[in-house]
Automatic annotation (TrEMBL):
Annotated gene: aspS
Domain of life per record: Archaea
Official protein name in the record: Aspartate--tRNA(Asp/Asn) ligase
GO terms under cellular component: aminoacyl-tRNA synthetase multienzyme complex; cytosol
Name of the top EC class for this enzyme: ligase
Task performed by this protein: Aspartyl-tRNA synthetase with relaxed tRNA specificity since it is able to aspartylate not only its cognate tRNA(Asp) but also tRNA(Asn). Reaction proceeds in two steps: L-aspartate is first activated by ATP to form Asp-AMP and then transferred to the acceptor end of tRNA(Asp/Asn).
Amino acid sequence: MIRTHYSTQITPEMNGGSVTVCGWAHEIRDLGGITFLVVRDREGLIQVTLFKKTIDKNVLDIVRNLSRESVVAVTGNVKKEAKAPNGYEIVPAAVAVLGKAESPLPMDTTGKVDADLDTRLDARFMDMRRPGTQAIFRIRHLIQKSVREFLGGEGFIEITTPKVVATATEGGTALFPITYFEREAFLNQSPQLFKQLMMSGGLDRVFEIGPIFRAEEHDTRKHLNEATSIDIEASFLDNEDVMVILENLVKYVYSSVAENGERYLKTLGVEPKIPKTPFARVTYDKAISIARDNGEKIEWGDDLTTESEHSIGETVGEHYFIVDWPTKIKPFYVMPYENKPEICRAFDMMHPRMELSSGAQRVHSYELLHSRITEQGLNADGFEFYLKAFRYGMPPHAGWGLGAERLLMTMLGVENIREVVLFPRDRKRLSP
Ligand code: ATP
Ligand code: MG
Ligand code: MG
Ligand code: MG
């Protein structure tokens, strides 16, 4: 191990002690009698000070010839210094160049020059060196960690389902076909069918954080072709039960980021408001009438347009659920109400800006499921592997899928979903 301390682990009280810090040459300022090298590591900046009078000439030469953004290891003594940014500086005994950076750099990392998103994504490794970018992904990490904590605490078991599949989850057109030896296969658009199989399997409560693939036709700021879904499925629970789990999860994640991600929120200049539970339950009928009152052209039975989502969101003003959807615009596995089958036990969970999650109580009767598949014009033969599980003891169950990127982007007020993915996939972008 080369590094002894991160920048944030050194304190002025360590005065006189020897340390080795590692990082990138953030800035080199040569004032003649004194030379400053600012080293940036994952956690922050460290000032390294070279006094011409006392410094080893070789060390001074290395620093003077250093190119910006090269990787260095600096070994030296901590010196308490009130004028240095962290109250200390390092007086080096040795500076090793571990990875030289060419110049010019593919993009500016200081934040002084505004780079457009395409340039940043083309040089994402470099973009990650900017504090604002890193802050987003440090928060993304905190979110995934807190989701696991919360769901683990609720008795959910983490599973991993296949991404290469033979059948479309919903038959839809939004699929990427791939070649799988001699056969056609697809990239999975959702873990839906597999997580339901595990209800028959008796795992009771499962979750997955994994990729979903969708051949989205349109280029929008909230759709990716490869996204991350947080999915749960739970037996012996109904639609309302899993809605309560969902709203509590969102609140937990926000609180957890506020508590553990303060530094990153400060870097980004945002202070997300922790949502209050329970979220409002707005019926689909009511949502449509709000949109229409706001002047949107939308009919009962239509899925919500982006404009309607915005208009309803503005009226409601905070996270909310839309419940009791028309059965015909929801997938076949959603349970219709027994006494009013034209609407179903489905819900969407919304942030005022966009949909974050869809879920429902599921059909668990084999006969009903079979006829729902056929009614939707799908071939039941292709679903045999799935339907089979409903013939040998399937408990009632419910679940949802929550878009990880959407949760993150709405929490941080990020405009474009591509900002919150390391290497976003969209119609034009397949590399890096
Ligand atoms: P939308 O109406 O916004 O297109 P959807 O209803 O098609 O979303 P679902 O099939 O309900 O999406 O998927 C569950 C969740 O997964 C969505 O609520 C959303 O948060 C997320 N999601 C779906 N498609 C995408 C995508 N292309 N890019 C990013 N996130 C997505
Ligand atoms: Mg969609
Ligand atoms: Mg939708
Ligand atoms: Mg949806």
